Amino acid sequence: MTLYIYVTISDYFPNEIGSLDKLEKLWLGSNFLQGHLPEDICQHHPNIQQMLLGGNKFDGPLPSKWSQCKQLRWLDFSSNNLRGTIPHEIGDLPNLEKLNLGVNNLNGLIPSSVFNMSTITMISLVYNQLSGSLPLNIGLGLPNLQELYLGGNKLGGVIPKSISNVSQLTVLGLLNNSLIGTIPHEIGDLPNLEKLNLGVNNLNGLIPSSVFNISTLTVISLGSNQLSGSLPLNIGLGLPNLQELYLGENKLGGVIPKSISNVSQLTILSMIYNNLRGTCTIPHEIGDLPNLEKLNLGVNNLNGLIPSSIFNMSTITVISLVSNQLSGSLPLNIGLGLPNLQELYLGGNKLGGVIPKSISNVSQLTVLGLLNNSLIGTCNSNFVSINIHSILFLS
């Protein structure tokens, strides 16, 4: 028996459900149910396989007796007000495949039993108050895990090298914690990894070269750490499927490799707030990225000219090169190759010359930021055709 309730209800957990002794699937998500979760639900529903109660107002602790639901495969209590610790007994569910306890007020350590559930494919504990560190043998008890979301907690310690043994892993989300140490080289041994998010931690040292050779990756997010070193010159040769690259707010130096142009699926390239440097360090080849939508290289030490190829990217919507040492002038035909550009930030550089009249052809432009440069001439007549909601920073 399956019970789906899609209507909006506001009350405590319905007692009448207890009489449905053959119930297998219980979906009561996104309502206004409140109060504590019933302790005896497994006693009344020994065959239940799915309990989806996310998006309610349940509070109190997670009942430890729910480990008696031996047929349970999918447990979702996300987006409630649950508090207390995660009971160790949750690891006694022999068939559990999906566990989602994200966006609650759970605290304390993550029970080691959670990392020894051989059937689990997805674990999400995001945005709680969980502390402690990941077990060093995390990769030894999760042969089927595909998605691990632990972001938005208070986890410390290092990323265990044994994570490389979770061979089915496609998503590793550890953002917004207090992780320390280096990124283990062994992460590059994950053959199916698609999304790697380690941003907003205290990670330091070099980015392992192995990370840039995971052919399955679509997202790399390592922003807001203390990572140093330079990008490998062959960065573009091992990432055929990468779509989003976030490396901002670190201590990366060196140049932007020309081979970045080989990451042909790239839509977002963000390296803001680093120490990138060198003459003409914005390679002309960036303009060869056929799908790039957002380019953010602001607040670095880049100098030289802005490659003309950047102003001929038909897919680009945001260009931000603020607070560098870029010089030269804007191309007179700037408005002819940017049909989708919405935001252009070039402030805080050493740009000279005039503002081209063709800027009026960038019909989608909503923000034009050119402040703190050395531009000359007049500009009033150049903006007649620009969207009335545009914000201009020209001082």
Automatic annotation (TrEMBL):
Superkingdom, natural source: Eukaryota
Recorded topology in the membrane: Single-pass type I membrane protein
Record keywords: Glycoprotein, Kinase, Leucine-rich repeat, Membrane, Repeat, Serine/threonine-protein kinase, Signal, Transferase, Transmembrane, Transmembrane helix
GO molecular function, one term: protein serine/threonine kinase activity
Broadest EC class assigned to this enzyme: transferase
Pfam entry (one): LRR_1
Keyword Glycoprotein: yes
Gene Ontology cellular-component annotations: membrane
Compartment annotation: Membrane
EC numbers for this chain: 2.7.11.1
Record protein name field: Putative non-specific serine/threonine protein kinase
Organism per entry: Rosa chinensis (China rose)
